Amino acid sequence: MRARKTTTGKAKGRVAPKIGRAEKPIELPDGMWERISQKAYELWEQRGRQEGNAFRDWLDAEEIVMEEIHEARE
């Protein structure tokens, strides 16, 4: 990921990450995206449908789904 310098406000002179698409996105196995998405939605509902936690819900859902897959393989 390339970085660029910001030139305004308090962040003057700091290096900020360049936001853009990944060069080679990670491909998930069939059905994985849907499983994670459904689990993230369930977590959002369990947490009272609070806004602002989508990224946290997604990461938690990834961890749960990966753990389920790992346990199923044992």
Please describe what this structure looks like.
- The protein is 47% helix and 8% strand.
- With 74 residues, the protein is mainly alpha-helical.
- It has a domain of 47 residues.
- It has a two-stranded antiparallel sheet with strand order 1-2.
- Helix 1 packs across helix 2.
- The chain is globular and about 35 Å long.
- It starts with a strand and ends with a helix.
Keywords:
single chain; 74 residues; mainly alpha; 2 helices; 2 strands
Describe the structure concisely for a colleague.
The protein has helices at about 30-45, 55-74; strands at about 5, 15. The protein is mainly α and about 70 residues long.
Oligomerization status of the protein chains? single chain
- The total strand number stands at 2
Distance between the termini: 36 Å
> What global shape is seen?
globular
For the largest sheet, list the strands in their spatial order: 1-2
Quickly give the structural class.
mainly alpha
H/E series: EEHH
Q: Which stretches are low in confidence, meaning pLDDT under 50 for 5 or more residues running?
A: none
Mean pLDDT: 79
As a percent range, the share of helical residues equals 40-55%
Please indicate the percent range of residues in DSSP E strands (runs of 2 or more).
5-15%
Q: Report the radius of gyration as a whole number of Å.
A: 17 Å
DSSP helix count? 2
| Biggest sheet layout | 2 strands, antiparallel
